[in-house]
């Protein structure tokens, strides 16, 4: 059967209005505070459909005070990066996975569908326009934030009749303040990030705003991030805004790299999938998507079967976990010299691909 054609904007209709006042590029900046000179906007409304994409000087949005994204959180976002290799070439890392995830989230948010390839070409042209902002460093990159908001100018919870898809860009260096330090996590079952039938597998802003309160409680307990548990058996689901991996000798005595399955609770991370695919290709140990509980982790720690734990995500890449505070106890997670060999190897293989040192069909040239 032929694929259904999605009514979408077309990259060929893109209009570019260049800024006449480009900003000086900062040397080092805190993440997400200084944006590049341009942004991409694409408007949609129910009667006329998608309008022509526009690249224009970066600026504020003008929204009606009743705008439905502000009242009912009908909005979503994505996060991906463009990397500059030693060969000066800019690359995206598996961008269609982000855009497919964005489409899935848009469907769940009752926002209109679009053609992901057309959107990628518009983003490519935005990055090309602001290419001088992509850092010349092997740890820096350009963060790309596609955002999709309902702009219905009326109260009343209903499917939006108008929406705005836009993309902004900012430079990014190292995500965590203490990069080399393994993360400290606080695990308390009184909070949960996601639940069966909910939107944990979608990248909606609402999932993140409500995680702030537990995040601050984690800090009060001397930890950097919340380790999200779920259910009576305290399943381990995600680590802050990262997917979670446990490298251990499992109950059957096998060396295993395990991460929770995509059952609706877990965000299908691009880095998660890449770690699964890389380690499966190595074929050196069992790689499994399976449920993991705190009691399984505690027994494994007691029996010295844990080799390491880490979080994975675009922002932080591969982040070792050093300890977990759980039920009043500080659980020490083994990691050698701040970084286990596995996390070092994964970081190297992934960055070599992202920065073009290892040729791979996972990258798309800008
Ligand atoms: C809750 C959550 N889990 C995992 C991830 C990691 O996903 P990715 O590897 O696509 O960045 C993110 C970041 O987007 C996230 O917000």
UniProtKB/TrEMBL annotation:
Cofactor: pyridoxal 5'-phosphate
EC number of the protein: 2.6.1.42
Stored InterPro entries: Aminotrans_IV (IPR001544), Aminotrans_IV_CS (IPR018300), Aminotransferase-like (IPR036038), B_amino_transII (IPR005786), BCAT-like_C (IPR043132), BCAT-like_N (IPR043131), BCAT_family (IPR033939)
Leading EC class: transferase
PROSITE patterns on file: AA_TRANSFER_CLASS_4
Coiled-coil ranges from the UniProt annotation: none
Domain of life: Eukaryota
Keyword Transferase part of the UniProt annotation: yes
Modified residues (N6-(pyridoxal phosphate)lysine): 203
GO biological process: L-leucine biosynthetic process; L-valine biosynthetic process
Pfam family, one: Aminotran_4
SUPFAM superfamilies referenced in this protein's UniProt entry, alphabetically: D-aminoacid aminotransferase-like PLP-dependent enzymes (SSF56752)
Any one Gene Ontology molecular-function term assigned to this protein's record: L-valine-2-oxoglutarate transaminase activity
Keyword Amino-acid biosynthesis: yes
Entry GO CC: mitochondrion
Keywords carried by this UniProt record: Amino-acid biosynthesis, Aminotransferase, Branched-chain amino acid biosynthesis, Pyridoxal phosphate, Transferase
Catalysed reactions listed for this entry: L-leucine + 2-oxoglutarate = 4-methyl-2-oxopentanoate + L-glutamate; L-isoleucine + 2-oxoglutarate = (S)-3-methyl-2-oxopentanoate + L-glutamate; L-valine + 2-oxoglutarate = 3-methyl-2-oxobutanoate + L-glutamate
Family statement: Belongs to the class-IV pyridoxal-phosphate-dependent aminotransferase family.
PANTHER family xrefs: BRANCHED-CHAIN-AMINO-ACID AMINOTRANSFERASE, CYTOSOLIC, SUBGROUP IIII AMINOTRANSFERASE
Name of the protein in its database record: Branched-chain-amino-acid aminotransferase
Lineage of the species this protein comes from: Eukaryota, Metazoa, Chordata, Craniata, Vertebrata
